[in-house]
Amino acid sequence: MSVLERIQAEVDSHPVVLFMKGTAQFPMCGFSSRAVQALREAGATQLHTVNVLEEPEIRANLPRFSNWPTFPQLFINGELIGGCDITLELADSGELARMVSEIQNS
Question: Which family does it belong to (predicted)?
Fold first, then answer.
């Protein structure tokens, strides 16, 4: 399986995927930490994370897969939502909570 197929499999098999530096329990950068916090506050209980620091192939190829240059990267229902700034904007507007509740209630 190619690295792009592995990324696609992660995105396809989990409703909420955050490609981040570190883990949800131990984020390794402030942006990843803030994104995890925003998702938790939005009620995401099914959050799946991929530590790009432990997956150098994914870290190298995810920007090409998503056409998004930075980490973290949030995918909901297979769709790239964006990075930390967009995640925080969606959280502030209440949109992130709505998106998360739709997943968990489906």
Answer: Belongs to the glutaredoxin family. Monothiol subfamily.
In this predicted structure, the answer to whether residue 106 has a pLDDT above a threshold of 90 is: no
Rg (CA), the chain: 13
Buried b / exposed e along 14-51 (16+ C-beta atoms within 10 A): bbbbbbbbbbbeebeeebbbbbbebbeebebeebbbbb
pLDDT tens digits for range 32-54: 999 999 999 999 988 999 999 99
Query: pTM for this structure?
Result: 0.95
Enumerate the domain spans of the chain: 3-104
Average pLDDT over the chain, rounded to whole?
A: 95
- The CATH class, in words, for 3-104 is alpha beta
Task: Using alpha carbons, select from 17, 31, 15 the residue that is nearest to residue 72.
Answer: 31
Which residues make Cβ contacts (< 8 Å) with residue 83, sequence separation at least 6? 31, 35, 68, 70, 71, 72, 73, 74
Q: How many residues does the chain have?
A: 106
